[in-house]
Amino acid sequence: MRWKPALLPLGAALAAVPFLSSVASEPIQNAHRSASTDQSQRWVSAKFQGVSSCAAASCHGGVGPPGVDGCELTTWAVADKHANAYRVLFSERSQVMLWNYRHLDSIAQARPHRDTECLNCHSLAPPAELRGNAPRQPQLADGVGCENCHGPAEHWLTVHYLNDWKQLDPRAKERYGMLPTKDLAARISQCATCHVGREGQEVNHDLIAAGHPRLRFEYTVYQRNMPPHWREKAYGPDFEVRAWAIGQVASARAAVELLRSRAERALKDRAPWPELSEYSCYSCHHNLRPQGPRPANGRPGSLVWSTWYTPLLESLAAASAPLTASGQVPSTAALKELRKLLTDHPGAGLTEVRTKAQAAARELGSWLDDLQEGAYRDSFTKPLAASRVKELARTMLATPADREWDGATQRYLALKALLPDRRDFRDPMLRLRGELRFAPGYDSPHSFSPAAYADELRQLREALESSGERP
Ligand code: HEC
Ligand code: HEC
Ligand code: HEC
Ligand code: HEC
Which ligand lies nearest the alpha carbon of 198? Predict the structure, then answer.
């Protein structure tokens, strides 16, 4: 996909909207981060206009099947869970959760639909100065709406359907507040603000213990489960593979950045430490059986850091050169150091955790940029050859067996993205998934067997090797 470089073509359209031309020439203050900068900024200084501003039948409120231009709002309202995200705050589950979390005297005092922490992720509740003027205002009842993902519309609402606008480079659009959702790194980082969390907006162990579901984001699954109101136009046939790899790195970057902010806040005594949700849940919550599965690092009695977001990254790094623009093997040295610090020394000093997390976030950030550049440059014109994808799948199958359910599940999801949906893989994949199922009546994988899982992996590996050159 090619965009014309920034700004120049907008001329006439801009002239019609007085302040746009000045905005165009300099970045909006606090501009929403682009894929390469840090995650911590919350708002651009542009006002949110609310879902109803997009709703006209001639704009996005047309009636038609998902993915058809003009019917985005209908798809969202009818089928997308985001439209329901505010309503769940009225449920009994939410009330009990807040009652526990805030140590309230009675359930009657719990009003999750008024609690900013809940609203941060379950709705669009910007501070007063970033709310548009009536009638163009966000409503809490809209839940997670258009501008949560596409950015505040004040500066682009009235021009974004013009031809000149459509020619603009995504980075130029970003200066008006529109997030570059075609950029997978930026898109997934935006999902991650709620699905992984970020500074001041997180699901920590206190909230989990109060009843919130544990967040466990993996992009390809969430993308499949979200009814698409678009067609992917910027990528070629290797979309799924690239989205998986970029999703791995973007989610890990968000998780490490969140860890940095947790350490930062704990230093000021404003956050619990150690933050238990950083560690393998099953380090602490498991059946104490002498023959039970050992922790991921093989040492009974130790806490294992980051079992969901980072277990595959080192193997991905070793095999990811063909996906990048530079063709280089990315460094994971800072990530390794961080893992070592937190796993071997759970009581490590906060300043050291902060510094090492910052370094790891930076390292992941440059890898992410390189992957995204590679995707833009090659996905259409030179999509990954089948042999390359097979090589990646082989890497994911070659790594030693996972001892933890988290890593095993991430590996299954990786294979789901990498292996074609073909008969010879279908049965072994179904059996692999079977190994990950929770036993009836349990909400944790207490019966997960690393040995049985490894056995299924081996069979899948054999299927891959006997599948010839056409993977
Ligand atoms: C960091 C963002 C974040 C915060 C803060 C947050 N949530 Fe959530 N919540 C989510 C996400 C994301 C999901 C969906 C989880 C999934 O399915 O992966 C969710 C799911 C839920 C669910 C389950 C919904 C369902 O359809 O099953 C409830 C209930 C809920 N949240 C209530 C709350 C309440 C009450 C608060 C405040 C005390 C809160 N949440 C704070 C992000 C957040
Ligand atoms: C949970 C995040 C999310 C929400 C909520 C959301 N979108 Fe999207 N939207 C996306 C993603 C991701 C894409 C695909 C990337 C792209 O094409 O820009 C997309 C694509 C689109 C496109 C196609 C853009 C193109 O160039 O083809 C339109 C139009 C759109 N969204 C409008 C809306 C409207 C209107 C709403 C509110 C009713 C909405 N979106 C809500 C994430 C979201
Ligand atoms: C502003 C916060 C926010 C952003 C940004 C966001 N989500 Fe969500 N998402 C939520 C919340 C909250 C829920 C839970 C809603 C519910 O269950 O009622 C949710 C639910 C979902 C679900 C349904 C999960 C389930 O259990 O069925 C999917 C799928 C999903 N999101 C995908 C995405 C994707 C993909 C993106 C990025 C393109 C994204 N989300 C961006 C907050 C967000
Ligand atoms: C370092 C140990 C440790 C880790 C790691 C840990 N927890 Fe906990 N968790 C505890 C303790 C201690 C309690 C409070 C005692 C209790 O209720 O069992 C608790 C309580 C809970 C509760 C409430 C249980 C109840 O019966 O009220 C839930 C749910 C929970 N944890 C889930 C998780 C999840 C999910 C993870 C991983 C993201 C996790 N925990 C990681 C130690 C841990």
Answer: 1
